[in-house]
Amino acid sequence: MTMPTIPSLLSASVLALAMTSTIPVAAQQPVTALGAMPAADATLYNDLGGLEVLTKVVDDTLALALADDRIKDTFKNSDMKRVAKMITEQFCELSGGPCKYSGDPMKEVHQGLALSNMQFNALVEDLQMAMDKSNIPSRTQNKLLAMLAPMQRIIVTK
Amino acid sequence: MESAGPVGAQRQQLNLKKKNRMIKQSWLTATTAAVAMLSMTHANAQSSMAPDLGKLTATAGVIQVEGVSGGGLVPWATITGYGSRDSYGANVHYTYVGTQDYQLSSYGVAVGIADRVELSAAKQRFTGSLAPLNNLRIEQDIFGAKVKLAGDLVYDQDSWMPQIAAGVMYKRNNGIGGLGAVTSVKDLGAKSDSGIDYYLAATKLFLDQSLLVDLTVRATKANQMGILGFGGDKSDRYQAMLEGSVAYLLNRKVAIGAEYRMKPRNLASDNEKDYYDAFVAWFPTKNLSLTLAYVSLGDITIYNTKRQNGVYLSLQAGF
To answer: How far are the Cα atoms of A102, B74, B133, B141, B266 from residue B178, in angstroms, in the given order?
Structure first.
C-alpha cells in the first residue's frame, strides 16, 4: 500500500475531529421536557389518525408493556392512567397536534429507573405492535419513531 | 531447486495437502467454538448471561457474501446479531449464488459483542458448470473483525451522523481443483493466495424516510473477492474501492434495495467487472432472515466472456 502523505493524513484527522466534535453537538436538539422538537406542522398528527387513534395506540402500547416480561416491572410504581395521558400528550404535541405536554421533563421521569437499551427497544416494539393494530402504515410509524429514537440518550441510563 | 522434477512437484502437492488439512482443522476449531457458545447460551438461557435480543428487528443487517454484517455484497457498519450494548448475538448462515456458468456457496458463523465488535468466519466455494470449467472448484476462508467507531444507526435520528465502523477481512485461498495442472491462483497470475481487505463503512438510517444508505470504502488487492487470489500481473497495489447500498424498509420485516461494489482489475486473465445487486430481505423473526437478490457479476476471466447474472439466496439463523 502506498503511504499516505503527512498533509493528507493531517487533513483527514482534522476532518474526522471536526466531524465527531461538531456534528452531534450542532445537530443535537435541546433536551426539553418533551424530549424532542415537535413537528413544524400537523401532517404527521393527521397521518397517525389524530388524538382518537393516538389515545388508543398509547393504551394498547401500555397494555402490551404491562404484559411484557422485559419491562412490566419498570411500571410497578407508576400511575398507569397518568402515564397514558402524558405519553398521549407527548405523541400528540411531537407529531404537530393541538396538545401541550404537561408532564415532567423526560430526563427526570426516567432517572433512577436504570433502564437498559434492551428495555427501551422493548417499549418501541410494543408501540410498533400497537400501531400495527391501529393500521398505521409502516412509513408513518417510522416518522413518529424517528422523533422518539434520540430520547434513548436520556432515557437509557444503565 | 526443489520445485524442479517430479519429486519436487510431489512434495509440493503433499505440502499443499498438509496446509489444506491445517486450514480445515483451524476452521473446524472456530466453528466448534461458535457452536459450543451457541449451546452454552441455550443452557444458560435463564441466567443474566443470556442473549437479550435487545436490538430492533433488521437493525443488525444480514450476513453479506463474505460473512460479515451488511447487505448482500457490501459490508455495513452494523454489528451482527441482536445483542444490545449489554449483551451479544451470533448467527450461522448459508448463501448460494448461481449464475449461468458459475456457483458460489458460502457458510459461516458470526458473533456480535456488545453491539460494538463483530467476529466472523466464512468459507466460500466457487464452482463452474460449463466445460471446460465444469470441474472447477476454488475454496476460500474468510476471517473478519469489525469494530463500531462512532454513531448509532437507530438513535441518531436528529443528526446526519451515520454509524461508522472499521473492519478487516483476512482471506486465504485454498487452491484450485478440477483444472489439471492449474492448482493455485498464482498459476492464473495472482501474486498471492492470501490477503487482507481493510474497510471503513458508514451506514445511515433515515428512519423518517424508512431509508437506509451505506457507503463503504475498501482497500483491497483481492481478485473476484479473493476467489482468484490477490494482486496480479497488472497490479499488486492496494486500491480503494467504493461500495454502496440503498434500502427501503417496506415494513419492519421486509426491506428492498440495491447495491454496487467496485472491483479492482489486477489480472491480465480477468477483465474483472463491478458487482451489482437488487435484493429483498425478509426478517420473519429476530432468529431468522432470508435474503433473495438478483446479482450481476460481469464476465469472470477472459476464458468465458459471458456476463454472469443470476440469483443470490441467503438464509441466516441466530440471535
So the answer is: 74, 30, 8, 19, 23
Q: A17 lies in a domain?
A: no
Q: Identify whether A12 is part of a domain.
A: no
Give pTM, 2 decimals: 0.86
Q: Which of A116, A117, A129 to mutate to test the interface with B (most CBs of B within 10 A)?
A: A117
Q: Do A27 and B249 touch (CB under 8 A)?
A: no
With contacts defined as CB-CB under 8 Å, which chain A residues touch B249? Answer: 138, 142
Peptide bond into B132 cis (omega under 30): yes
- Residue A57's domain spans which residues? 30-155
Q: How many domains does chain B have?
A: 1
Distance from CA of A146 to the nearest CA of B (A): 5
Partners of residue B252 in chain A, C-beta under 8 Å = 128, 138
B249 touches chain A (CB under 8 A): yes
Q: Where does residue A39 fall: left (phi above 0), alpha (psi -120 to 50 degrees), or beta otherwise?
A: beta
Q: Which of B79, B68, B206 is nearest to B144 (CA)?
A: B68
Size of interface A-B (CB pairs under 8 A): 79
Whether B46 maps to a domain, the answer reads: no
pLDDT in tens, A14-52: 444 444 444 444 444 455 789 899 999 999 999 999 999
Contact B53 A118 (CB under 8 A): yes
Range of the domain at B206: 51-318
Residue A5 maps to a domain: no
Residue B81 domain-assigned (yes or no)? yes
Burial class (CB in 10 A: 0-12, 13-18, 19+), A63: middle
Residue of A92, A99, A100 whose CA lies nearest to A49: A92
Hey, is the C-beta of A23 within 8 angstroms of any chain B C-beta? yes
For residue range B8-56, list pLDDT tens digits in order.
Answer: 556 666 565 666 666 556 655 665 566 566 555 554 444 468 999 999 9
Q: Does B153 touch chain A (CB under 8 A)?
A: no
**In-domain check, residue B297:** yes
Beta-carbon count within 10 A of B316 CB: 23
When divided into structural domains, chain A yields a total of 1
Residue A10 lies in a domain: no
**CATH assignment of the domain containing A40:** 1.10.490.10
What's the complex ipTM?
A: 0.85
**Minimal CA–CA distance to B111: which of B140, B143, B139, B141?**
B143
Distance to chain A for B239, nearest Cα, Å: 8
CATH number for position B139: 2.40.160.40
Nearest beta carbon to residue A117 from set B84, B206, B249: B84
Q: Which chain A residues are Cβ-neighbours of B85 within 8 angstroms?
A: 117
**Closest-approach residue (CA) in chain A for B238:** A1
